Amino acid sequence: MRGFINRRESPVSEPSRPMHFLETLVAKDLEEGKIKKVVTRFPPEPNGYLHVGHAKSICLNFGLAQRFGGDCHLRFDDTNPEKESDEFIQAIQADIRWLGFDWAGDVRYASSYFHQLYDWACDLIDQGLAYVCDLSADEARLYRGTLTEPGRNSPYRERSVEENRTLFAAMRAGEFDDGAKVLRAKIDMASPNMNLRDPILYRIRRVVHHQTGSEWVIYPTYDFAHGQGDAIEGITHSICSLEFEDHRPLYDWFIKNLPVPSEPHQYEFGRLNLNYTVTSKRKLKQLVDDAVVAGWDDPRMPTIAGMRRRGYSPAAIRTFCDMIGVTRSDGTVDVAMLEHAVRDDLNNNAPRAMAVLNPLTVTLTNLSEDHREIVISPNHPQNEALGERELAFTRQVVIDADDFREEANKKFKRLVLGKRVRLRNAYVIEAYDVVKDAQGQIVEVLAKVIENTVGNDPEDGIKPKGVIQWVSKSEGGRATIRLYDRLFTQAEPEAGGDFMAVVNPNSLVVIENAYVEPSLLAATPEQAFQFEREGYFVADRFDHSAEAPVFNRTIGLRDTWQEGA
Ligand code: ATP
Ligand code: MG
Fold first, then answer.
1. Whose CA is nearest to atom 27 of ligand 1?
2. Which residue is catalytic, options 83, 157, 271, 285?
3. Does residue 532 contact residue 352 with C-beta atoms inside 8 Å?
4. Active-site residue 34, yes or no?
5. To test ligand 1's pocket by mutation, which of 241, 272, 303 has the most ligand atoms within 8 angstroms of CB?
6. Ligand nearest to C-alpha 302
7. Is 339 an annotated catalytic residue?
8. pLDDT tens digits for 371-408?
9. How much is the average pLDDT of 413-418?
């Protein structure tokens, strides 16, 4: 009961949904006094940028610590130095902070424990629970058996403790070539769990490590490093995705057989898969390396940095992670659900503004050349706190070329020659002629404003059919607009075997000469807007400036996600 009371008193805002199974578990462990404080960790390998799947794991691990007043550590799982780099280490930290989380204490590294891990490997040798094996990788595979057949003992399995000690020290001293020997645990070559068939603890690899330089030529495996790192840090709940379920007996075997300072436990949850999306760092890296996208933070990438640049807010991503929940089964989530969370957040919070993507000039011939009149536009239809802005209404405005037709049937509720339309928050206008170029293209519409129609219906009773957006031609500015769409054309990009073959060729369309209203020229990078009737857009984090405005389309207006669908 005490744990429960503490929780209620904690200042952290709690989600109103019911607890998921890991929250229930932690609550119980606290209540029963099994643990005094929950300590979790988020353990990324610094071999790529974090993606939306990692966001789920971050929200889970940091969320548990927040909800129950515990700690969450950030530990880089840096046991594969050849694929890792400091660029990734920095980017991962920035992404976690941007998502709204912070880790307890310093950033930690599995590599900080290399000395302790080495000593513990020696400890296993001394107990007769580890041996140096000279089988080549190919031979080891043959000895390993299969899922249906037991493996066979390595001929090196019965080496003496002394010999193993000497050989392991020689491995560390660099006396053997890469791959010539490995250190293995001595468990059970007939185990139905392949992970217990004398798994590898150390490999020889002459690779300079981003943290430890050239101090080591042997590196521990993930399995040997992970649980022991958890034990060193006093992690209570080591949460990983379901594919590690079969590794749990090995995790427990190390904890049981080593003099570790604490006894962590591993728990598994279902990883996030999204349709129309790949969430494997290896595949994301291929998209970057093959220049299919402009980098890890390209707005089409499902990376945290990409979603940020696309205009998704941290709150929207956290809401999405809350919506999908945490369970013990793998499933595929509809990307429309993520888009729904993003759209909902923007609908509530993004100020409205006007932009014309495909500009067509309209000259209002009954206004004087220097006509300049201020009309007031609310920044949000529901949220008055977002205020209003002044827009200059002038003799020439631009509207979207798609909003004008010389002739149209009644379904077309925009501007038609001889008919009326309202310019948003300004006048009703009536078009009466067009100007065409030599190719017959319409280059200008001639129209009249209907007097006294700002905020009023026309006095003659002829109401306009629709409302369209506009920008003053003399006061608005040119902008580059990047229209992003889903990166893959198929719901299951990996289903056909080659995800590169189903990249959407139209996932980015660049519009160079859009017109945007003056307030958008003053936007700061990463500021989000709803461009009326067009969608949600964000000023590009890196490329946008007042002199050369650049906006990315975050998402369209229409919601395609339906609860329960
Ligand atoms: P990838 O397969 O994309 O390379 P990974 O699991 O190798 O991912 P890590 O850096 O090792 O990436 O992952 C750090 C943590 O994030 C792990 O605990 C892992 O379980 C979790 N994680 C990774 N991908 C997902 C996902 N799609 N859904 C939920 N959690 C994930
Ligand atoms: Mg991994």
1. 53
2. 271
3. yes
4. no
5. 241
6. 1
7. no
8. 999 999 999 999 999 999 999 999 999 999 999 999 99
9. 97
Instruction: For 167-218, write each residue's pLDDT tens digit.
Output: 999 999 999 999 999 999 999 999 999 999 999 999 999 999 999 999 999 9
Nearest CA to ligand 1 atom 29: 271
Lookup: tokens for 516: 């945007």
Three-class HEC string of 23-52: HHHHHHHHHCCCCCCCEEEECCCCCCCCEH
Q: CA 281 to CA 56: how far, in whole Å? A: 15
Query: How many A from CA of 483 to the centre of ligand 1?
Result: 29
Spell out a b/e string for 14-24, using b for 16 or more CB atoms within 10 Å of the CB, else e: eeeeeebebbe
- Mutational test site, ligand 1, from 54, 284, 338, max ligand atoms within 8 Å of CB: 54
The Cα 160–Cα 247 span in angstroms is 28
- Could you give all domains of the chain from N- to C-terminal order, each with its CATH number? 113-220 (3.90.800.10), 275-349+476-565 (2.40.240.10), 353-472 (2.40.240.10)
Q: What is the predicted pLDDT for the residue at 5?
A: 33
- pTM for the predicted model, two decimal places: 0.94
Strand pairing category for 396-400 and 130-133: unpaired
Q: What is the pLDDT of residue 243?
A: 95
Amino acid at 324: I
| Phi, psi values for residue 40, rounded to 5° | -115, 175
